[in-house]
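Exercise 7.
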Amino acid sequence: MDHVLIAVGRKVRQFRKQRGMTVQEIADRAGVSKGLVSKIENGRTIPSLPVLFSLIRSLETDIASFFEGISMERPPAYLLLKPNDYVPIEKEEAVGFHYFQLLNQSLASNAIEITILELDPGAKREKVSTDGHELVFLLKGGIVMNLDEEMIPIGEGEAFFFDGRIPHVPTNPSSEKVRFLVVYFLNAGH
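Solution. The predicted structure, written as tokens, is:
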């Protein structure tokens, strides 16, 4: 049943955008912080049941409509993903960040999301935090990871694993687009 929780963030964003509402408006209506709503929408945390119900109410919908289209069936034993299967997704407000979701799956009490991120030269966004751990693997080019106040260079073919609760943002110091794999290990028990 954990796999159902993974789709919640996408549904919150979908309903919010359909209603032309901002993250702040939904947060105010639900009585939660803008940061929490953003984290939920971006798959960086999974809401508690009371928060989820407050969000559904604030989106002016009912539970049945909200969960419509979310499959209750267990995921298959394996997945083979081809490049055309990569789904472009929006995460936090950012310029020059291009996310392509490969996998978003629950495993026991944890969830895993695998994403390819492309950064344009000069890409910008604020630092974010994730309720879990992250693994970054550089496929093409190099980045500098700003982890709290530390600047950590990561080169092509290198992997970087860290506690996502530490505020962080990758930067692209080069004049070429960089591409890397990001694996999010989220605690679905939150």
